[in-house]
Amino acid sequence: MKLSVLVPCYNEADYVLELLDIVGAALPDVAKEIVLVDDGSRDGTRKLLEDKFGPADLESALTGARPTARPLSSNATIAIIFHEQNRGKGAAIQSAARHCTGDIIVIQDADLEYDPDDWALMWKLIATRKVADVVYGSRFYGRPHRSLNYHHFLANRLISFCFNLLFNQTLTDVETCYKMISRDVLESLRLSQPDFGFEIQISAQIAKSRRWRIYEMGIAYYGRTYDAGKKINWKDGVKALWYLIKFRFTD
Description:
Strand content: 15-25%
Radius of gyration: 17 Å
Number of helices: 9
CATH topology: Spore Coat Polysaccharide Biosynthesis Protein SpsA, Chain A
Largest sheet: 9 strands, mixed
CATH class: Alpha Beta
Shape: globular
Helix content: 25-40%
Number of domains: 1
CATH architecture: Alpha-Beta Complex
Number of strands: 9
């Protein structure tokens, strides 16, 4: 079985190459393809990637041409898609998803807040034990996580509480980056939200289907500050509450 790693990337020149080294080394016995979408970065991220891996495929996700796969490690390849303008995290993930070919798919931000070593148990639940179709990695299960802004913690708790109430779930961290899903789940989704509202849309469609076995497990979280490049803000939290209502009552 093959794992597809979808990496949305925007202005991550300080972190992206180190992150790719870590991703390449994760799950050493599993074949991996990394599909990275540079979402119109303006900090030199694209040049770093092209210097190391060769030219990115401009808009290949829209033209239909499959992006060029290049070796990353002994068991991993990388394909890079370039968005000429910044469209948002959701749009970047949708571009990557259109070209991934793996049996199992995971989302990985292009910074160092999340640790790919946590994939091992997620992979086991879906690929080995075959008890799950979807695995969420929760930042609030007691694994190492950096203490940051308490208001962010409250906002995450509120969003997860409202999601559980509306969709009859028991998740503790709906907004987590780490969502690992099977190919069948991916092919059932109809994703369209270009911004951080993608996180709510994908979870809403998974929950509303009532078809998928959803698990949650603790992960490590090495959160960063705004000075270090954190992008989500309070406006995204307010939007998330609106998206909860929108995607509960619409497709």
